[in-house]
Write a structure and sequence with these properties.
xenobiotic transmembrane transporter activity, Growth Hormone, Chain: A, membrane, Bcr/CflA family efflux MFS transporter, MFS_trans_sf, globular, mainly alpha, cell membrane
Amino acid sequence: MSKPTPGHPVRSRLRLSGRADRVVLVAALGILSAVSPMATDMYLASMPAMAVHFGASTSAVQLTLTSYMVGMALGQFLLGPVSDVLGRHRLMVAGNVLFLLSSVAVVLAPSVGAVIVLRAVQGAAGAAGVVIARAVVSDIASGRRAAQLFSVLATITSLAPVVAPLLGGVIATVAPWQTVFWALAAFGLLMLACSVLVVPETLPPHRRHRGGVGAVVGGSWRVLRTPSFMGYALAFGSAFGALFSYISASSFVVQNVLGYSALGYSVIFAVNACGSILGALVNTRLVGRVEPGTVLRTALVVMGTVNVVGLALVLAGITGWTTLAHLFVSQACIGFVLGNAVALAQSRVPGRAGAGSAVLGLVQFLIGGLVSPLTGLAGQHSAVPMAVSMAVCSLLAVGAVLLAGRLSRRPPGKPSPSAGPSAGPSAGPSPGGDSRGPHRGVPPDP
């Protein structure tokens, strides 16, 4: 496969004609990126039933979320740089097979401890689709075009928090919790079909990094040592921490504090997810007119303000419709945050799309895994830990993005010459006509 150019964009394995081929390819990447909300949101309504089934505490059951997040984080950190060396496609297929098998294994787990371990494996396997889908976008687009594609992926991914909790609520009402993981096995089969039949190899051999393990470690280390990238990565991860604080505690808060049923909770969760989808759709249009950095900073400031006000209301003992409004507005802001943060971060490490995607995933899911058990410290009948975590994470995100903006006024460094001719940037010219060459820097982020 030759390097993609504006006149010769990357095509799917189906080789459809015109626009249909691009739509199918982006849809497949969106499905692969949606694995985390599917693997977490679908069984939130069944977590109380899982605790009863295993005779486990709330925090123990929430550790099944934490272990998934840790597995997802470590899997991305390893697989992203490896894909810069070995290519994208084979790792994606292998990860989807393992995700399918681990989903079935959870159904047969004899204890909550076994579920915790298997969820870590499931997270590491699902990481292949998430990290490589991001790398594929960076392979084929850059600049505002990349921000638009990442927003489209975020929109597709945001459909999962609509479908997953509704399906999960129905399952929690009429079937045992194990049914959720049979549904995840079916989703794993869908991901496998996308990777085998649709997504092509976007990093041909002549553009891969050489040097084996040394190249893998070196790529990640160079990304970690890029301050402007880490600023955007921390903003991205902290915003996700606010999101996951809500995800991990919302089933207990909405059902036990606000008094809704499992199905009612699923409807509320889906409505909030629609807010995120709406934000991502608006952002896709907005970044064509406004700099992505400006949109990102504005969205994070609004989210931080809303979450601080929401915390103040919860501490004052005011819950109910105000809590629901707080959660909806916060989720709507997320739609403007994630795609722009990823695009801006990846722009700071040209030529290392896999390693950059890996570090983003590591930061994202380590923070998510950290906040998950913390939101359950006060038990099943308090919204305070969730509100505190959402406020703290969003304020950290504001600080990180402001720092990143200051650091980004300097152009990013060029790829190391020691990497050889194969170390040229994996992000070729975008379909929109960006003609950056392998030895030119990119302009500072806005």
